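Late entry, written up from scratch paper. The run itself happened at the end of the previous shift, but nothing got recorded in the book at the time, so transcribing now.
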Amino acid sequence: MRRFGWMAMVVVTLLSPSICAARAQTVDSSAHASPLFTKRDAFLGVGFAALTLALLPMDRVIAERLQDSATQSNRFLAGAATDFERAAVPGAYLMGGVLYAAGRLGHLDRVADLGLHGTEAVFMAVQITDIVKGLAGRARPSVVGDSVPGSFEFARGLRKEKGYTSFPSGHTAKAFGAAAAVTAEVVRWSPGSRWIVGPVMYGSALMVGLSRMYHNAHWASDVALGAGIGTFSGIKVVRYNHHRRTRLDRWLLRAQLSPGSDGGMALKVFVPF
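Output as recorded:
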């Protein structure tokens, strides 16, 4: 829990200027909706696809270097890898919930936006990766007797255990989904923060992917595709909800947190009929 406390402090520090601006300016950000699809999306998709294909022939070499005995015996690397994995799961869900609750309690619509859309992006990334994992049926590097990078088999991931759900990396997709959503939301409030929040969020997400490779759970190309899926999930969730808010989005962003009869907090959702 101390680790999550430090994570929360870092996020609050990074976002504090934008949160102050959100408190002073509560204009509905959907009033300045950007196009849902742009040419940049196509370039981004081609870039991630090219990176994934480029890493496929290098998967074996990269995995062997990361599994070298000297690398694996490094206590700092081992501890950092574990911490970054926990930052993605369950950290991404916890952080989204905390920011949403803080936004509703403090009547900060943009902070609630941040928590809600970050969580939505993570769930969207999970759904996409689970489908691709099941259909690709790729063996994880740790699967004994079948740990070769080219071990794909259509729908094998739906028939067997998790050892055949390597492609793409779900942890990486979740981390990049949260990073993309947070960055996109904050840039809407304060465009100048792009060069501070972006590198921190995406850099942390990249470390999650590297930690999965360090623990021999994924190939490098798994991480590349997971990063692409997560990035698109975060960008599209934010852009769509500010382009045309969903009914669920409107309901939850109108919800109020108030003291409950049992001494806890109650969430009141106003559903229009």
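Strands lie at 256-259, 265-268.
(Scratch paper discarded after transcription.)
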